[in-house]
Amino acid sequence: MADKKNLPREMTGAELASMLKSSINFKSLGGLRCPELNLTPEDMQWWRDAKVGMFIHWGLYSILGRGEWVRHNEQIPWEEYTALADEFDPKDFDMHEWTDVAKDFGANYTVMVTRHHDGFALWDSPGSYQGFTSYNTASHRDFVKEYTDCAREAGLRVGLYYSPMDWRFPGYFDPKGEKDPENAKSALRMKQQCYDQVEELCSKYGPIDILWYDGAWLAHSGSDTTSSWLWEPVKLNKMVRKYNPKTIMNPRSGWEGNFYCDEGSHEITGGIVPVPWEKNMCVCSGTSWGWMPNDPVSDFDWLIKMMVDVVCRDGNWLVNVGPDRNGHIPEAVKQRMHEIGEWLRANGETIYKTRGGPIEPVDNVYGTTYRGNEIFLHITDPKAFAGRKLPAIPYTIEKCAYKGQPVPFTQTEDGITVTLPEGLEHEADTIVYITLKENVKPAEEADIYFTGKGDPTK
Q1: Does residue 218 sit within a domain?
Q2: DSSP reduced 3-state for 110
Q3: Mind listing the pLDDT tens digit for each residue in 144-200?
Q4: Residue 299 in domain
Q5: Which of 19, 456, 106, 16 has its CA nearest to residue 311?
Q6: Closest Cα partner for 233 from 255, 260, 259, 211?
Q7: What is the extent of the structural domain holding 370?
Q8: Which of 350, 379, 405 is the last residue of a domain?
Q9: 43-102: per-residue pLDDT in tens?
Q10: Angle, alpha carbons 34-35-41 (nearest 5°)
């Protein structure tokens, strides 16, 4: 019998929400457990240090410009939708455009959608049902190879998004064949396609740093976890590990994964999160992950605040862009990504290679990150911060500084006060550097298993 002391603490989704008093909604709680698939904190270190990534949604749906769910939402006949592959031929597109934007943005990793729920694969995929790929249609290009080559050339860690789900299979909507016995066979063909394609992605394109699953749930009901009876995610991901022993995977195949995902543009509130996690959101309105014409770009200050709120709660920030039908990222998006990159080039030492804490954040006022003997106090509302006392910390402060100039502070057993200069100019994030006499002691990695029971999001 396993030693109970060495087992993860089980925590329900409701407990998570209560503990953190948080707006965070993790996807796919309660995934199957398999210690063999877990990674060590050392294996996860590069990802923890990276902090910022760029997500890319691009496919046939980009031709229509009405979102990546357009085929299903509008019930477009298959003959009409699949004919879009004859138009998917971005002749003047160079993959360096994406990686240049990612580098300019300050990303350390990228995640490209290789195949969304419509089934259209952006690589030379022999395992694709009916050969529905970019390589077999108008462009005759393997965009995954182009992407992985360019990402590595740019020094970016390589992430691949893959959806096990495929709307082309009737078995997806009736996996047990309750309406038609043939649908159960269809579901198994869909499963075989998933295994074949995941193996292709893991074996043909060099080391894959991140495998980002999406859409393992069946019939648009339940969750990734409740659909694991079909996908057998432990078996699937053991195959991944065979090719790439250190690939970091999210939980959305039905296995618990190496990190958790909070998806959408809702703001982040609550405490420091005790497990690896990632905020997934769009740089535009969030109405769609795929390209839409005239989709408004989010406000710069709000995006910086979102990043700060995530990183101060010990998360990573994965920001999505939607290239148009020709693979081009809209100029307004490029400009906003550049502006964020400029901010990171000036302030990145307070973001990259840091950890959230040690002081718990106060929603819409401040949060902290740290590295070594420095705490970086990120103040998003200086007016609300004025006069506040920070909690006491078990470290001795040597100095506090703002823009390289000392600022007054007091430290007592009751807490810390920091006095900002008067007449501050408006900033998205006012950062005070707190230098300590000793290094901050990192928090121990929490070993928590989120059961999904009592999940308030379901």
Answers
A1: yes
A2: strand
A3: 999 999 999 999 999 999 999 999 999 999 999 999 999 999 999 999 999 999 999
A4: yes
A5: 106
A6: 255
A7: 357-436
A8: 350
A9: 999 999 999 999 999 999 999 999 999 999 999 999 999 999 999 999 999 999 999 999
A10: 130
